[in-house]
Automatic annotation (TrEMBL):
Molecular function terms from GO: DNA binding; DNA-binding transcription factor activity
SMART domains: HTH_CRP
Domain HTH crp-type residue range list: 139-202
Protein name in the entry: CRP/FNR family transcriptional regulator, anaerobic regulatory protein
Annotated PANTHER family: CRP FAMILY TRANSCRIPTIONAL REGULATORY PROTEIN, REGULATORY PROTEIN YEIL
UniProt keyword list: DNA-binding, Transcription, Transcription regulation
GO CC annotation terms, alphabetical: cytosol
Span of domain Cyclic nucleotide-binding: 3-69
InterPro entries assigned to the protein according to its UniProt record, in alphabetical order: cNMP-bd_dom, cNMP-bd_dom_sf, Env_Response_Regulators, HTH_CRP, RmlC-like_jellyroll, WH-like_DNA-bd_sf, WH_DNA-bd_sf
Species classification: Bacteria, Pseudomonadati, Bacteroidota, Flavobacteriia, Flavobacteriales
């Protein structure tokens, strides 16, 4: 299991003893906005997307969680017994180890490799969030769309991505009409090929 590549054997045993390994289908919500975090997800296989939802219903993609990673926002909220500021949705069918938040707090004191895991995640997510801020503030929609399509291609290890214009629009926090218009321009520039509910990256 991937846990053995991340942690020392004694911590792996604690995780396996106290955690709950579950399978989730794509589209399932595993962390909701404003909910208390009782379990911290560590992805074993598959992937999760983490989004921020505003009161008007608009959403924006913050980052993806891939095998061997967790959600730093969930970890911090869980250990401090605070409500979640994000929503986590399974992007592709996933196997996830759910770790009780109270255990995660204890392990910070007892296991240096767990603390290192949290700090490394924090650094990586902070850099990714800076990219999101930079993208929203300074990049045009076409560059943001192309970057997102490339992210998904890397995530799924394929250049043919099954995704709708609405899904892309939701993840970028823009309208479907603007998304469709920009995608058509990108197709004219031979960057992508559009199919029904599918995009091929050239």
């Amino acid at each position: 299991m991937i846990l053995k590549d991340l942690f020392q054997s004694d911590l792996v045993k604690e995780i396996e003893d106290s955690g709950n390994l579950k399978h989730f289908a794509a589209g399932e919500v595993i962390v909701n906005m404003d909910a208390y975090i009782k379990n911290i997800p560590v992805v074993i296989s598959g992937s999760i997307k983490v989004i921020r939802t505003e009161e008007d219903g608009r959403e924006i993609l913050l980052y993806y969680i891939t095998p061997g990673e967790s959600c730093i926002v969930s970890i911090l909220s869980g250990m401090k017994n605070e409500t979640s500021k994000i929503k986590a949705i399974v992007e592709e069918d996933a196997e996830i180890m759910l770790i009780p938040a109270d255990k995660a707090k204890i392990w910070v004191k007892n296991y240096p490799d767990w603390t290192d895991f949290i700090f490394n995640l924090y650094q990586k997510r902070f850099e990714e969030l800076l990219d999101v801020v930079n993208s929203v503030a300074f990049q045009k929609i076409d560059m943001r769309l192309l970057h997102l399509i490339k992210q998904k291609a890397q995530l799924y290890q394929t250049k043919e991505i099954s995704v709708t214009h609405q899904q892309l629009a939701d993840e970028l926090g823009i309208t479907r009409e603007a998304t469709s218009r920009v995608l058509k321009n990108m197709e004219k520039e031979n960057l992508i090929i559009l199919y029904r509910n599918k995009i091929e990256l050239l």
